[in-house]
Amino acid sequence: MHFSSPNLQSAMLFMAACLTIPTFAADCGQSGNCFSSGATRDNMYAARQEVCGTNRWKKAGHYRVPGKTGYLRWTGVDTQQTCWDAYDNIINQCKLGDSGVHTHSGQYQYNGVYYNAVDCE
After folding, report:
1. First vs last Cα of the chain: how many Å apart?
2. CA angle 45, 48, 50 (to 5 degrees)
3. What sections of the chain are H helices per DSSP?
4. Which residue of 14, 64, 94, 113 has the fewest CB atoms within a 10 Å radius of its CB?
5. pTM of the model
6. 47, 72 contact by CB (below 8 A)
7. Strand order from edge to edge, sheet including 105-110
């Protein structure tokens, strides 16, 4: 294929590059009220730090937010960066830790590994 316009060539290369970048989209649970001592957004980010910032992410596991009903669960190993990104996207896209009626759980799957987060049960 021959493109005569340098701008068109650049645009085509940019579009091709965009199609190869993985996207991180979380699947969010049902919306509702949390009637227990649910984890705040800060609690959820602290849990993410504990899991992804230490060696915990290197094998399947479960981490409960101290003093709260929230938790993180993951089924295997991908990369540390995937751990950071997956939980960041779950917390943000599913609005975990927010007050009021919202979703209280989310999951993300990448390379056969499931990342799950719940801010209250």
Report:
1. 56
2. 115
3. 6-20, 41-52, 80-93
4. 14
5. 0.75
6. yes
7. 27-28, 105-110, 113-118, 71-74, 61-64
